[in-house]
Amino acid sequence: MKLWGGRFDKKNHPLFQKFNSSLHIDYHLSLYDILGSIAWSKSLLECNILTISEQSKIENALKMLIEEIKINPTKMLDSNVEDIHSWVEFRLVDMIGNLGKKLHTGRSRNDQVTTDLKLWCKSIIQDILICLKKIQYTFVTQAESSTHDIMPGYTHLQRAQPITFAYWCLAYIEMFKRDEERLQDAFKRVDISPLGSGALSGTFCNINRKKLASYMNFSQVTQNSLDAVSDRDYVIELLSIASISMMHLSRFSEDLIFFNSGEVNFIELSDDVTSGSSLMPQKKNPDALELIRAKTSKVYGALISMLVLLKGLPLSYNKDLQEDKENLFSAINIWMDCLNISILVLQSIKINTSSCLEAAKKGYSNATELTDYLVQKGITFREAHHIVGKIVLEAIKRNDALENLDISIFKKYHILFENDVYEKLDMISCLNTKKSIGGVALDQIFKNIQLIKDRLSIKSI
Ligand code: ARG
Description:
Layout: H1 14-20, H2 23-26, H3 30-46, H4 52-71, H5 84-96, H6 109-144, E1 150-155, E2 158-164, H7 165-190, E3 192-193, H8 209-215, E4 220-221, H9 225-230, H10 233-260, E5 267-268, H11 287-311, H12 324-347, E6 350-351, H13 353-362, H14 367-376, H15 381-398, H16 407-413, H17 421-425, H18 427-432, H19 442-455
Parallel strand pairs: 3-4
Antiparallel strand pairs: 1-2, 5-6
This protein binds arginine.
């Protein structure tokens, strides 16, 4: 069954029919297609194309169809129609007869499909915003319990300066906050109704498009129908936000895989998010995190394929646009799954406080403080840097931390070293020198935790 056929003498080849069909993908839009159709029927009533009783019959039948779909969301997959729009119309005609054939007056599948997809995007954006809030909440909870867990911070994957596990958590909150903001911004552009654009140049029906948009909870209407039926920028925007956010999840995964490695041993991942080896009984592998890292590539793939799909496409609607949904649906599902799995992993991490502290000490991550010590005593920074470099070299040769060196060794390199140098080298005092906004000093961390909790509306514990 088709929505067209009058000008054709021959039937479609079964191979082409299968190739052309999008029902197996766009059936996910069924509820939005029906909601858009109910809204459209109201506009048809307002411009006297439908009578009150006709509109109410159509609306009631469509509402019954929603109930049918809620009971069996994949029921349409048994049919061999071209797409979800065709399926809804045929079911309507089954239910109320010829009257159902009036519904498509003045409407095209071109404005219909992008309306459905925007409604789907609006709903999924709300779901993802909740996941992004949850992951930030999980990070801040983890941060609150690890404010004193000192570990090395890295540059070039070399131990650089001491930080705390809490500070590492707060860094990721910044990233997911930006993802949240990007998504809220993108929402504004998704929230513009294309319905009433017709095939490409508008509709002959004298409908009030703003009223029609409000029936579907859109806050604005598109201003050019040629653009409205061709536009898939919002799909690209969503995929690019997903890609950036997946990059954050992938870096998070990589950090944790490293922290969890036998060589580093800063954390232990819980049994419920790790797997074993079929051969090596001792293994406990960070599969969840490795999969997040891998699945990131699929989301990038979806973004790239959408950019390529659109780049040479002439205005306005082309069937190429049918291929927008499969990648979008799968990428968004991956993103949500990875956010939820990351939350699980994070909730169950055990921090190995002593290995973290030992690594921070052994890594000479307090060498910068030793330089600052000399600078405060009047030595130029460059000279102090050189002297401390020499002391670090000696400590490496002795295989000892800076704070374990005898004062006589410090004095060998500069007479201004006194016993107060050991306070400077203490890890907590190293942290507390970084008092600037965004720094690692404990006070700053506590302030930041409070700000985040207020933003996420979490009551103080
Ligand atoms: N299944 C189509 C899609 O997803 C619906 C629009 C079809 N429009 C058309 N003129 N053939 O894009």
